[in-house]
Protein 1
Amino acid sequence: MSKIRSMQKILIKNIKGLVQVGENLPQIRKGKDMQELPILENAFLALEDNEVIAYGSMSEWEGITDWRELEVVDAEGRYVLPAFCDAHTHTVFARTREEEFIDKIHGLGYEEIAAKGGGILNSARRLAEMSEDDLLQLAQIRIDKMIACGTGAIEIKSGYGLSVEAELKMLRVIKRLKENNKIAIKATFLGAHAFPTEYKENHRAYIDLIINEMLPKIAEENLANYIDVFCERNYFSVEEMAEILEAGKKIGLTPKVHVNQFSVLGGVVKAIELGALSVDHLEELGDEDIVALQNSTCMPTILPGCSHFLGIPFGDARRMINANLPVALASDFNPGSTPNYNLFTIWSLACIKMKMTPEEAFNALTINAAFAMDLSATHGRICLGSKSPLILTKEIPSLGYLPYSFGELNVERIFI
Ligand code: NIG
Ligand code: FE
């Protein structure tokens, strides 16, 4: 006898505000339109196996007639939002680096800590010693916590391997995370995160290792969606980045890069020329970067958690929005520069430190972030047929309360 699968049916009623809802919402919001945020008040939402099958005002909800096995959720005083998309994270790592945090308190800078053997190379040493299974288990614990905070899709980078074996180990962990989780996960190859000590004086040999040893294996095992390079002084030059991105593109990886964290080297312009889906960090930004962004579909992605933790400038979102650009926000969750994955915190920081309005920052964490990880069709919005995870908030006075009440977790339930 064939097994009859029972559908999971949920009706959420009396929703105070159903946020980012509608058919034909745009793929991106930019400039003045970043202020747009459609909210349906006093609404209902019907889900079947977590696909949106109906929504509307409470006055129109009689259409839902099949009450068999239906779970009814009363959302009086609560909001329903599409879950956030986190388009830039380093969620797979061996251990945290709070000793560097103490060094920072005593006055050492990010680049000084790296120069004395801390930083990315510290994480790489730890990761080399850890098994794939242990890395997987630790990353899964982090992902469960991210989901509980309202994250519904995650991009995860390699880049703490820095050898053929360890980079592949990281990417295999990400592949298994994709298979084991219900939320969407995208994998980015970041072999060019730092030069390992033994290649400090021989960049050519490490770049050859990336291009001739790592990339062919990544293609063979289909281990990545994107290719990233940390383009920065003391890391990878613009020319080195370009060579690596070109090689990645040959095996079908789209560029998505770390640029302009500490300095403007020309990496933004070059990455856009090479078809980057997003350019991330942008704590520093030149006029030529703005022009290149205006002439492209590349998504500028700002990481305020990193600025806050390192005490470096915040990306100038207002300048970008005034230049009619879109902006996405992401966590940059990693053990060195941003040990925080809670996108509600990022929402608050964007409002407090970058003077984004709650609506602009929410668009940056949903519609625009979904674009920055090729998930526009399914995530960052609520529409008929969408399968994006959803956030049900606690009882709150207004939507602006969410970024205002920084540090408070106002999530009552996540629907995945
Ligand atoms: O995005 N800037 C480069 N990479 C990470 C930090 C990595 C680390 O310090 O472990 C970032 O901030
Ligand atoms: Fe990063």
Protein 2
Amino acid sequence: MSTQNRELKMVTSGIPASDGDGVKLTRVIGSPQLNMLDPFLLFDAFESDQAEDYIGGFPSHPHRGFETVTYLLAGQMRHKDNAGHEGVIEPGGVQWMSAAKGIVHSEMPEQKDGLLMGFQLWVNLPAAEKMGEPEYQEFPANKIALEQRENGTEVRVISGTTNYGTTGPVINRHTQPIYMDISLAKGQSFEQRIDLDGNTFIFVIDGELSVGSRKEKLSKRQLGVLHEGNSVYVNADVESRFLLASAKPLNEAVARGGPFVMNTKAEVLQAFEDFQSNRI
Ligand code: FE
């Protein structure tokens, strides 16, 4: 099959938002501009060295029906759930949590000052899996697959396989996601084979990229949704770092109710009821 580079379809910078107990963040997916990118329901970026922006953290709250993926670049976050699962996510570490039928947890900064920077991505579950058992896939930085290429390119693979065969530790049978953190020196390019119909986005952590054959620009803190194609191709105009995410769409009805994402409104109401009567 010939290579069809994915071109830039739309660009969004998200909206400033506050969640948990006053944590300041940028909501890039799950915003009025980009409500979702099936199966991605939400993408938040947070970055601050001002304690008041994050110190409140995310006290006890439930989730049902999807997966939360926390990837931290700076700082520490402690998570603790109602099943006794507890740990600290450190820089470069990932927590891929499948809330499925339900988890109540807190996510709190494990620091009083300094920089806290990271991302939370929500990945939807298919109807048949929404009431399955919760599950964690947690990896510290040294367990994230690192591919170092001769031209200085570094690819941290959380999930999926690079063109050179490096495979990330996270497994997701439902939407077979690719989630990678890529660093490029100025002038270098990056190519990644991808499912033709997977929904794909790039978020620029730092620098500036030219995307696809048309070389349209994507700047720092912008998220670009890509058109269909079987290859992602970007060039770094300056030294750059970006996240690449892609997954198979579920093409199912989505009913959202805050921390619950189900297929119908009735199922969301049931989730609120279950939470209120301690059944989550
Ligand atoms: Fe949460």
